[in-house]
Amino acid sequence: MACAIAAVAAACATTTSPTGRTQVVGGVSQEQLNQLGAQSFAELKAQKPQSKDARQVRKVQCIVSAITAQLPQGWQTGWESAVFVDNEPNAFALPGGKVGVYTGIFSVARNQDELAGVIAHEIGHVISRHHDERITRQMGAQGAVELVGALLGSRYGSGAANAAVQGGGAIAQAGFLLPGSREQESEADIVGQQLMAQAGFDPRGAVNLWSNMIAASQNSSRPPQWLSTHPNPESRIRELQQRAASLEPVYAQARAAGRRPSCG
User: Are 233 and 263 in contact (CB under 8 A)?
Assistant: First the structure.
């Protein structure tokens, strides 16, 4: 097992995800994950230019602030965001409270509700401990191969990915670089859509976002990386539509309570 062979690991543990799914985590401690997430984020900021569009930056900060205010106790503080200049329609979140958005996402997330759908989904991965789960699984299969060096890549970005792979990147790819499994992606959809509704964003924005992503992929020779994380986008849209309807009371309650984000 991973925890028996990893010198840096805390004891593996079975836990329950936000949707009630059983997870095996603990291949690395939460403190280590937070440190590695922060290092990855710092490396990406050093490698990629950041947007000078103040409106884009404020919009992302506003949405991150509104969503993270709805997180469970212990997850709410210390979040940081950055907008990177890159035409790829992507976003990510890392352990340690780091959120990155690529400028390309604004071509498919055309209002605050659609962008909240992206950001809430990615934050859903973090609070569902998906990075921990993927690393733990990979360590069990591969062993702790240069773990710390390998995990310095960010979840997105070819430069960071190549650097991480050179350092023993099988674990890095499982933990940060590659999208989650279908199971994790579906779970992040559920958690993220719930979060956005609680924050006062229209949960139908997630549906519109995915419709826009599909349209963008049809007009491109290569589908966006964010879209490719799920084998059946049409099924995903149907699930998001059904969930959006069930979340209407949550959204209405948030608005009635004064949670009416105005993020541009």
Answer: no
Burial of residue 233, with CB atoms counted within 10 A of its CB: 0-12 exposed, 13-18 middle, 19 or more buried: middle
Q: Is the dihedral of CA 94, 206, 262, 54 positive or negative?
A: positive
Report whether pLDDT(185) > 90: no
Strand partners of residue 23: 15
Question: Which residues form the catalytic set?
Answer: 122
Angle between helices 112-127 and 54-68 (to 10 degrees): 50
Q: What is the pLDDT of residues 21-44, one digit of tens each?
A: 888 788 778 888 898 899 989 999
With b for 16 or more beta-carbon neighbours within 10 A and e for fewer, the 195-222 pattern comes to bbbbbbbbbbbbbbbbbbbbebbeeeee
H or E, element range at 24: strand 22-25
Task: Assign 53 a pLDDT band (cuts: 50, 70, 90).
Answer: very high
Q: Is the pTM of this model over 0.85?
A: no
Q: Which residues contact 124 (CB under 8 A, 6 or more apart)?
A: 18, 187, 188, 189, 190, 191, 192, 195
> Residue 94, Cβ neighbours under 10 Å: how many?
26
Reduced to 3 states (helix: H, G, I; strand: E, B; else coil), residue 251 is helix
Q: Confirm if 63 and 122 have CB atoms less than 8 A apart.
A: no
State the DSSP H helix or E strand holding residue 99, giving kind and residue range, or none if neither: strand 98-102
Cα atoms in the Cβ-side hemisphere of radius 13 Å centred on 48: 27
pLDDT tens per residue, range 101-133: 999 999 999 999 999 999 999 999 999 988 888
Residue with structure tokens 């990386």?
A: 225
Quick one: which H or E segment has residue 59? helix 54-68
Query: Where are the domains positioned within the chain?
Result: 2-256
